Amino acid sequence: MAESIKEYINKDLIINNLEAKTTDDIFYALSEILLKASFVKDSFYKGLVKRESKFPTGLTLGKYNVAIPHTDAIHVIKPAIAIATLKHPVTFNNMDGDGQVEVNVVFAMVLNEPHSQIMMLQQLMLLIQNEEILRSMNDAKDSEELYDIVSKFECNLI
Amino acid sequence: MNKQKVILVACGTGIATSTVVCKKVEDLIKANNINARVIQCKISEVPGYEDEADLLVTTTIAPRAYKIPVVKAINYLTNINTQKVDQAIIDALKD
Questions:
Q1: Which CATH superfamily is domain A5-151 in?
Q2: ipTM associated with this complex
Q3: Can you say how many angstroms the Cα of residue A37 is from the centroid of all Cα atoms in its chain?
Q4: Where does the pLDDT of residue B8 fall: very low under 50, low under 70, confident under 90, or very high at 90 and above?
Q5: Which domains does chain B have, with CATH numbers?
Q6: Half-sphere exposure in the Cβ direction for A131 (13 Å, CA)
Q7: Partner A, chain B 3-32, Cβ-Cβ below 8 Å
């Protein structure tokens, strides 16, 4: 069976309607749940903050925008994707250094090997390119509903 | 046969977005019969490969100027106007 996004998400790793003012607030909340569930080391939060300041991860897509923060494998115990939808959009710098973006949904990618998890990464990219999915994530009532939306996302990779 | 070209694909960590872009570039060179190979790395590792490489494809901010041409490939992640990036890569690899 091909690996899919579903294998990397977990109900304990989803935060719906997070109230955050800054990127650091978001990273802290996501790092906390990842640490609690033993997916990352306690250095993960600092790793995210440090990397974001050097290499930002905001992606301007259109109506709903996302960020895909991640950091070096050294801070990671096992791979996962942690998700937060934001109650109010938070400003990120665009990945290519070209301006800023108001982000609605954050996918923290917890990765531990280069060149691997390609299927999952491709699926995640297809997911963020789907405005309808992002809209339903943004409007989801609770983390249970968020989990259902992402876990049911099926896509055919060519 | 022409000498094989070397394409660097780099992101901040060399783990995530470069993996996605790597696949896109590999598919592109195959579809266009371009004799090239792809090396995935961190942007901080680019200087070590600069002398042997012909092109840098990156999703992140290039911290300095390089001797080789640079193509920004964030469009491969957002799927907005990817043809532009395809063409820029093909053009950069022409002799």
A1: Mannitol-specific EII; Chain A (3.40.930.10)
A2: 0.84
A3: 16
A4: very high
A5: 5-92 (3.40.50.2300)
A6: 7
A7: 11-17, 19-20, 22-23
